[in-house]
Amino acid sequence: MLSSLTPGASVGEVSTGTRSIQGVGPTTAAFVGRAPLADAHLHEAVAIHGWPHFLKEFTRPDSPGTDLSRAVYGFFLNGGRRCLIVNIGDARRLTGGTRKREGLAVLEEVTEVAMVAAPGWADPASHDALLSHAEKMKDRVAILDAPEDVDDLELLTRMALLEAPGTKPGEASASLPPKGLRPRVSDQGFGAFYFPWITTVDPMSGERVNVPPCGHMAGIYARTDVSRGVHKAPANEVVYGAGDLVRHVTHEEQAELHSHGVNCIRFFPNQGIRVGGARTVAGADSEWRSLNVRRLFNFVKESISVGTGWTVVEPSDPTLWTSIRRDVGAFLLRLWRDGALQGRTPEEAFFVQCDEQAHPPESIDAGQVVAFIGLAPVKPAEFILLRIIQHPGGMEVEEVKNG
């Protein structure tokens, strides 16, 4: 309120009550694997801000390169700016032990991760571990490598089978279909699968080597996020540092693989080596089959969760509901204007419901604040729904199946 006890004009500042929701950074990657210096920072999440920083923390002059180091180099070469490294040394699995946090479990304590990869870990158990981690955290996607050597491309279209406990290596039930190499389905699209490996120069030895694609892809994700936005599919982008490919995929082969959720990296005449797809490992008819849709929703969920954290200590009443509609609506309006949401008008692009209808008496008695948010990332007539629930113990943002 402005007041003045003397004649003349008074100028003051009045709070509007608006709390701007800022987008969280979607460009931080996490890599899990064996570092060149195998005992450096074991099972710690170490933030790295560039290739020289990685060399300082995880190598020494005589250290040989590893899949992890080559992936990190590819990440920064392709536009990555910040990543987390979890060195698991000579561990034989990504998930670590049960008594303390090791491997992927270390990253459960880190909320800034937007993508996670284990360079070169291309077996079914590792794919499952990465997908399970991303599905549990719900704020990141797993970037999955195909095996280096694939003689029969049809194997990439068939889902891999995890060995049942007690099964001897190579032993399979006669009733099971032939084993494939494709990761299992992630119903909500929390992973993307890439083939083939890239031929490049090892930055540590100077030798020509084949490297898993996940590091280069994570860098392309980050580069696209900065230049165009997280809503832009990281496809048709040049793979910097790629001198060749372990296998050259034809147009016909790519069409078949793409229909099964395999993103191919290809050489295109006069265009160089580029990423030829942006599919997730969700089902073919899933609303989460497009990688940019999955990552956009991760970005929106995290941004709203952080930006509305102040509501946790507020009473659930119409005043608060109005504030939530206003703040979330303003954030989504900016996304629509940036081209992240489809629709000729904001009404076609999104809606925010936080009113009496969303708050039955039992919800208010439980101290909950509930908001339904609908976004149209692909078609103006189709919404994918989010539900925000604020309660005395904290806040939850969950996806709601439409229909």
TrEMBL record:
Pfam families: Phage_sheath_1, Phage_sheath_1C
Coiled coil: none
Residue numbers spanned by region Disordered: 1-20
Residue ranges annotated for the Tail sheath protein C-terminal domain, each copy included: 285-388
Ranges of residues in domain Tail sheath protein subtilisin-like: 111-280
PANTHER family listed in its UniProt record: PHAGE TAIL SHEATH PROTEIN, PTHR35861
Family: Belongs to the myoviridae tail sheath protein family.
Protein's recorded name: Phage tail sheath protein FI
Originating species: Hyalangium minutum
